[in-house]
Amino acid sequence: MNQPARAFSRERMDRWPTAKLEGYQLRRLKNILRYAGRELPFYRERFQRAGFDPDKVKSLADFARLPSFTKKESLDALKQEKNFPAGLEKLTASGGGVLCMTSGTLGTSFLYLPERWAALRGDSLARAYRWAGLRRGMRMLMAAPAWHSLAVQETRVIQRLGAACVIPWGTFLPRYARHFLDAILDVKPAFISIFLPMLYALLAECRRREMGAAQAFQSVASILVVGAPMTPLARLDLKRQLGVKDIFEGLGNPEGLTAMECPHHVGHHIFLDCCYVEIVDPATGQPLPTGERGNVVLTSLIHHGSVYLRYDSEDLGAILPRRCPCGRSWPLMEVYDRRANILRIAGRQIVPYDVRLCLDELPALVNIPFAVIRSATPMERLTLLIQKPASGNLEEIGVRIATLLRKKLAVETTQEWAEELPQRWKGVTVIEEQDWRGTRV
Ligand SMILES: [Zn+2]
User: What is the distance between the alpha carbons of residues 425 and 131, in angstroms, rounded to a whole number?
Assistant: First the structure.
């Protein structure tokens, strides 16, 4: 068993005063900039092109002068090298580790996650699993497949906390829900770590079997979900349906981000021991004040494996202008969606999360799947495709939706009702109009 002494000695770091935390982050940023300039050709070239001297960084504002980059640029580097590594990573002498893939519309990027990376990120992440109630000897069902960066970190978390791990057959795609439910019924885990769309698929599987979800989840005390934002009312409804003590939401990616909820659920504490997060104005690239939504720019503070410095994750997020009642000083953030899912309607910008918050105000629609249909031409109205709720008059509900969205988001809406959202769009919140019409003919 690995000894966790070093990370546990940092336990109190999440309560350090802000100035001390900033000083700590600046030191770590300077270290990783020096490392990147020395060891990683991708950054050496970027520093040169931008006239950026890592040795001259004396403040967080100096650091923000380093131009950010997107996934496309890391993919271009990979294409140019025609090989891996692509210059963002230094292989260890043994070459051991996990090559993790992140898919997307632009292509698949590869991140090299050696043992040291897994140890540092996993040790940091273990804190969140303790917040969520995972303890020594408890049985945890781990849904992330082995190649996924979350599984790489969770393996370390499980070792560190001394939990017993159960891995169901299949990946986290909803079509494997049957096996996942069988595993839950067989091994009776007390803790589940899962992708939110898969949790909904498990609920659907319970309905198919005419089995109460609370009965299926009888052994489960806590669930940690990742992969999609969960609104406060959606959490309450899921807790009620599943009969579990609590549901925690985590944000993270292998490029650098870890931000997790504590039991107060008022945002995600940014794990300042392993990442530095900036929210910048999409138009100017300048830092935005807390509370404003903008591009999430990430910097990993871990100089092992693939290193991402000022990486624009193409997410829309904000650092929240409030302190958590838990007393921890690590700031809170929220990620609302991918920026590709931003909808522009009659001069306003909204994301499906904003619509979800509104729909949740109608009890019949909490956790009922919906999607927005986006047209290629400028939109004057929001068109929603909503799964028919089990009860209620659709016409009346439609009027209430229109009133709510007019009041809260200042947009006009049209609803279309579906018995069930088509399988290919389960978990997808924005459907392009041409694809939607293509399905119906
Ligand atoms: Zn907290």
Answer: 33
